[in-house]
């Protein structure tokens, strides 16, 4: 299992000394070969804190945690050393075929009733919060924010810092829904964020590319489908398609309501000197 996935799915509260240990483990300095005593020294704490953190995360002890960390670091090295699409072919036909196959599998992994259930949750919301922390996911977060604004929702885009999350989450309530992305691996902020959303009576729609992974806490709606077959080169086409499909599913729940919003957006666009998104024939 991925060590980062274990962290992302944990809702345990960490002490200040345990957070220091976690920072060492996630420092990217290849600490997977280091014994617990060395990790503790780097963190400026005691070896028992390292062992306690491992057990709090669900491991039997530090050796099991280190095994997962070694697997993560080995995969990172393999991804870094691999040539892009070395095995699956770099030509346009092979690339397009792989992406088309991934898109064709979408309905298998995300049945329409699952999509519509998530859409109904959004339809009954007043405010949509959107979260992702990875650099390559931020365009998806911004896309989701814009798609929801096009439907007339008030949208709050969340950054990854603890301070930003705290400031923006003050207004999250039972009329709010979080749309979050977890691609390849989940942010360490995701589990406490989802937990807080649900504690406040709101809902969570999670878009992931890891079908079958059990997130903790469980999101209210999980839209999970794998991306292209090339493990070293995965485009965002599948999560983009899920994002657009989610917007369409919401729109068709109440075409009159959301159509009126689109008309208002067109009117305001012209008022501010712009052109309609889709010019109308006379």
Automatic annotation (TrEMBL):
Record keyword Cell inner membrane present: no
Signal peptide: none
Matching InterPro entries: Homeodomain-like_sf, HTH_RpiR, RpiR-like, SIS_dom_sf, WH-like_DNA-bd_sf
PROSITE patterns found in the cross-reference section: HTH_RPIR
Pfam family for this entry, one: HTH_6
Protein's UniProt keywords contain Magnesium: no
Domain HTH rpiR-type as annotated: residue spans: 1-76
Keywords annotated in UniProt: DNA-binding
Family matches, as PANTHER family: GLUCOKINASE
Protein name: DNA-binding MurR/RpiR family transcriptional regulator
Organism listed in the record: Pseudoclavibacter helvolus
Organism lineage: Bacteria, Bacillati, Actinomycetota, Actinomycetes, Micrococcales
């Amino acid at each position: 299992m991925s060590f980062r996935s274990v962290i992302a799915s944990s809702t345990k509260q960490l002490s200040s000394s345990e957070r220091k240990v976690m920072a060492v483990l996630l420092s990217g300095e290849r600490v997977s070969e280091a014994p617990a005593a060395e990790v503790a020294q780097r963190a400026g704490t005691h070896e028992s804190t390292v062992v306690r953190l491992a057990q709090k995360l669900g491991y039997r002890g530090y050796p099991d945690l280190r095994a997962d960390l070694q697997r993560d670091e080995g995969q990172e090295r393999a991804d870094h050393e691999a040539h892009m699409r070395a095995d699956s072919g770099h030509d346009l036909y092979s690339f397009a075929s792989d992406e088309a196959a991934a898109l064709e599998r979408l309905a298998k992994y995300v049945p329409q009733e699952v999509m519509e259930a998530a859409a109904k949750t959004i339809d009954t919301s007043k405010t949509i919060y959107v979260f992702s922390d990875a650099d390559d996911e931020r365009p998806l977060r911004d896309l989701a924010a814009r798609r929801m604004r096009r439907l007339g929702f008030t949208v709050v885009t969340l950054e990854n810092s603890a301070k930003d999350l705290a400031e923006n989450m003050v207004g999250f309530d039972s009329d709010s829904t979080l749309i979050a992305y977890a691609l390849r691996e989940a942010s360490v902020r995701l589990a406490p964020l989802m937990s807080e959303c649900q504690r406040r009576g709101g809902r969570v729609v999670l878009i992931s590319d890891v079908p079958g992974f059990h997130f903790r806490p469980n999101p209210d709606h999980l839209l999970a489908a794998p991306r292209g077959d090339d493990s070293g080169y995965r485009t965002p086409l599948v999560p983009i398609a899920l994002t657009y499909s989610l917007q369409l599913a919401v729109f068709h729940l109440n075409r009159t309501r959301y159509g009126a919003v689109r008309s208002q957006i067109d009117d305001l666009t012209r008022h501010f000197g712009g052109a309609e998104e889709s010019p109308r024939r006379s």
